[in-house]
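Re: folding output
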Amino acid sequence: MKLEKLIDKHWAYIEALLRAQNENESTIKKIRFHYKTAFRHGWKHRGQKSGK
């Protein structure tokens, strides 16, 4: 599965939770940006040791 499709599937779940909690569109847009950006960033680091 391509990364963007994976991100979109995960985001769909999070978005549904936010909508169920009656979050407004502005908040959802902000969270969408941060969630997807963080997901991509984390994906780049998969498999790396945490350094602990």
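--- second protein (sequence, then structure) ---
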Amino acid sequence: MKKTVSVLFMFAGILFAICLLISNILATKIILIGSWAAPAGVLIFPIAYIINDVIVEVWGYQKARLIIWSGFAVNIMAVLFFTLALVVPAAPFWQNQEAFATILGSTPRIIAASLLAYLTGSFLNAFVMSKVKILMKGKDFSVRAILSTLIGEAADSFIFIIIAFAGNLPFNVLIGMIFTQATIKTIYEIVILPFTILVVNWVKKVEGVDTFDESVSYNPFSINQI
């Protein structure tokens, strides 16, 4: 029996991967939001968490797991090809190698921190969203979305900043950066929440599904359930 492929699910997965790629490139610039300093990736990265919430809410944890690992694979591919482009000799007349390396070149430590933080935060976000939906019998999407994002973003920010910058920055600065990133990302979720609710309700109506993960395996590495 053939499985039907949801166009909306495919679109959500593509948009998720796009947000990840753009946020990683933007993260090379530090911006000021009010008096808070943060990587420019915070402008778009929270959208990936919102998409994660929508996927879990509509299609369930299994589909979110598929998208999270797909996003991870996209990130790995991007890193490999960015690295290849950096090491291939530049044309003699091209004078922008240093600028190119600044934008697309990252140290192994930064890359490892980013990938580990992404996996941990994304899976935590999906797990909390799925579990709390069951506990709350599908009610109060707003509460569930904010709670899952807060936990996922806090874990993501903590892991990334500690691994990437511990030993190079004072402890109080690290804590401040963790708090700033997690707070900005959660506020982002709250501000855009009315739109997210509209999207969730519309997708549920179009797809005709509202998944409850009653018997799903929450093992991130499970490949038996897709």
